[in-house]
Amino acid sequence: MNNTSDKKRQVRMITFFHDIEQNSELNVEPNTCRQVVNGFLALEKKYNVPATYNVVGKLFGQQPDLIKQIIDAGQEVAFHSYNHQPDWNPKYYADEIHLCRRVSNSPRGYRSPRAQWNQNTLKTLWELGFLWSAEDDVRDEPYFIYEGLVRLPISGDDWPLYVGHITVDGWLESFANFMKTRRYVAFGTHDFVFCHSMEERMCVYESILKMAVENQARLVTFSKAADLFRCGEFPNDGSLDTISSHENSHKNRLPMYLVNIGRRLLKPFRSFSKKILFR
Ligand SMILES: [Zn+2]
């Protein structure tokens, strides 16, 4: 890798996040999930790391002390649906966001269960005053996905750990790799995943926080990342213009007429290379 691409891919920002859903779907002990939250908050305080807690909306009413605890610790609270239904599907998407807004006007962001969402999700979020949406995405840097709603792409979470696809060492390594290859890293955990082997997993989470701090990455909540994006923190570097799966993705990047001119210029070369390579 040469110096230019090193500079281009250098990590500028990391968001640590937690999806807090207790026993919404799985048979875990809510009190153990609360201990996990205590553990996350203690480590983040120790290393002075900001984080965003995406909490299932119904917990705002059922356990207001949990919400207060997170906010009092100086961390951000956002939503992770209202009920987190086991059969999460499009018929719930908009209603769940409305239910969340009814319980609190404060959160500025939202993350869908199973990273499953649609255009209606984005429209409802924007109409109800949300400013960011954090989901798995083909892109790896923030962008405007719908009107002024900022998409914050997720790099990875602890799901592979939960299903046994990787060990804790592999999980740590995956975080190190994201740090090397991305300008924006959003890395997350679930309360219920850490209910299992809590001590070992907290230990690795501590190593991850240490690594982020030692590498002098800029550590921000999701809301701060979205604000910095709006202020031009992620200028177009030309590496993402070929991805067109999201219709609004051109905003804040190259003006569309320039992208179209580029596409038209490239067209003869594309059809030529297709003829050569795929006949
Ligand atoms: Zn979830």
Question: How does this model look, in words?
Answer:
The chain is of the alpha/beta class and 279 residues long. The protein has helices spanning 3-9, 30-46, 58-62, 64-72, 90-103, 119-127, 159-162, 168-181, 191-194, 198-214, 222-230, 256-278; strands spanning 13-20, 51-55, 76-79, 109-110, 132-135, 143-146, 149-153, 184-190, 218-219. The strands form two sheets. Strands 1, 2, 3, 8 and 9 form a five-stranded parallel β-sheet that branches. A four-stranded mixed β-sheet has the order 4-5-7-6. The longest helix has 23 residues, at 256-278. The protein is globular. Bound molecules: zinc ion (ZN).
Short synopsis of the structure:
The protein is α/β, with parallel strands linked by helices. Helices cover 47% and strands 15% of the residues.
Bound molecules: zinc ion
Number of domains: 2
Identify low-pLDDT runs: 238-279
Question: Fraction of residues in helices?
Answer: 40-55%
Mean pLDDT: 85
The CATH first-level class of the largest domain comes to Alpha Beta
What is the overall silhouette?
globular
Quaternary structure: single chain
Supply database-style keywords.
279 residues, alpha/beta, TIM Barrel, 2 domains, five-stranded parallel β-sheet, four-stranded mixed β-sheet, 12 helices, 9 strands, 15% strand, globular, disordered C terminus, binds zinc ion
Secondary-structure map:
Blueprint: H1 3-9, E1 13-20, H2 30-46, E2 51-55, H3 58-62, H4 64-72, E3 76-79, H5 90-103, E4 109-110, H6 119-127, E5 132-135, E6 143-146, E7 149-153, H7 159-162, H8 168-181, E8 184-190, H9 191-194, H10 198-214, E9 218-219, H11 222-230, H12 256-278
Parallel strand pairs: 1-2, 1-8, 1-9, 2-3, 4-5, 5-7
Antiparallel strand pairs: 6-7
Helix pairs in contact: 2-10, 5-6, 8-10
Bound molecules: zinc ion.
